[in-house]
Each structure stands twice: as C-alpha cells, then as structure tokens.
Amino acid sequence: MNSLIEEIQAGGDARRAFEAAVARVKQDLPSVLRELHQGESLDVIDTLRGLQPDPLTESLTAPMRACRQGCAACCFTVAIDVTPLEAIAAAEYVAMCLSPEQVESVRDRLEKLAIRRAMMTREESQTKRLGCGLLGMDGACMIYPARPLVCAGVHSFDQQACESAAELVALEQADGKVPIDRAAKAATMGVSGALQRALVAEGLDGNLYELNSAVLCALNAPNAWRRYLAKEDIFAAAQCTEAHSWPRLDAPHTSVKKPHFLKKARRRTNRR
C-alpha cells in the first residue's frame, strides 16, 4: 500500500490525471456550454461532477482514503477557491433546500467570516483558517450535493494527520502536513481549470474567489444566475484569489495553472 501511495505522491499518475481531466472537459465542453446558457447552475455542477473521476471505479487509491462521513477536519484547515458558477450553485442550494431560519443563519455566519477575513493581515492569512460557513451545527456540510468541485475531489490517506492539522490551525500555528490522493486532486484541478477557461472564452467572469465571500455575494444577489450570465459583476465584494479575466482584469488570459506538486515531480524526474 505504501509503495502505491509513494508512486501517486511522486506525481506521475497525478500529471496524467490532470491532463486527462482537461482533455475530458474540452471534449464535453459543447454540452457544458449549452447547459450554461439554457439550464441552471445546479445542472451544470451535476455535469461537471460527472467529469470528475469516479472514486469507486477509476481510482486505484480509493480504498486507501480515510475520508468518512462525519469528519470535517478539512473544512477548518483548507481555504477553498471556487468559480462564480460553483458559488452561485451553492447559494441556490441554500435558498432552495434550507429553511428560512437556516438561510439567515448561514448568511449571518458568512457575513461574520467576511468581516474577520477582511481584517486579517497577510501573515495571519497564512496560518489562520476561519472554517467554512456552510457547516451545520452537527459538523456536516449543509450543501453537500452542491459542494464545490475541490471539496468533492480532495481526499486524505490519514485521518489522524487531518485531525492533527485541524488542532494546529485551532492553535493558529502552521498547517500540518496531510498525505492526500494527488491524482484525484490533480484531476479535479484539471476540471476546474478547463471550466475557468470556458467561462473566460464565453466572456464571463472566470476568476477564482474565496468560497465564503463568494457564496455570500451570490446569496445577496436575487436571480444571481441570470445576472451572472448577463455579465453583471455580482462578485465585486468577494475576495478574488486568482484573477484570470474581466471584471478583475482588463485583459483576459486563459492559462490553466498546474498544481505545484506536478512541477516538483517533473524536476525530480529530470534530475534522475
């Protein structure tokens, strides 16, 4: 088992997974774009989820994953970036599937998180994680069926390492190291990267935003999906974490950033 994990960590399978995911989305891009303009954000999320590797049938490392229902450690240790489409889908799920009281509770948490994040220094943002405002009182994800791509595509091999990392974050120390399924993460980043390029090519906002602030913007924008497709800047108040295009940049660029561990793996291979 350890040898297979080490092989995955080395990046070979991860690189192939990333490139295959980009190619897969490109192949299905016409249907994705049709749904983009004719369907709803939740429909598009379902389609994109189908382009991610099936954790039961396509991943050799699936049996080694330690992620289980009830574990929310990564919800407190990982800063999640999302496309506008994912943020709108999450907000629509909140509005459609939660009670009015729950919606207001979620909105209140997101507003408080946005205020706290805006007050953080650059150094604090490196060591302090504020958690996800979309967790319920029981620690379960309140938008699980509509959760962002990265939330569905990142898996840990070691639950104890996750819990230790969460404890370090709670103490406002540096994040602990968690062994993850890098091939699954790379494939997910490939899907996300291809989606970003598709949005930019359509003249839409294809930037990445911090999850909590982006969902808050979408939740506060009635008819967010239609307004987004009409190219209204509804995410002006959200924290942009990676700018690709309008309205955060004057001139768009559509490059897909590869995961850092793929670059490191290539350097190790070249030294051999």
UniProtKB/TrEMBL annotation:
Location of region: Disordered: 249-272
GO MF: methyltransferase activity
Biased composition, class Basic residues, residue ranges: 255-272
GO terms of biological process kind: methylation
Entry keyword annotation includes Methyltransferase: yes
Tagged with keyword Transferase: yes
Alphabetical keyword list: Cell projection, Cilium, Flagellum, Methyltransferase, Transferase
Name of protein: Flagellin N-methylase
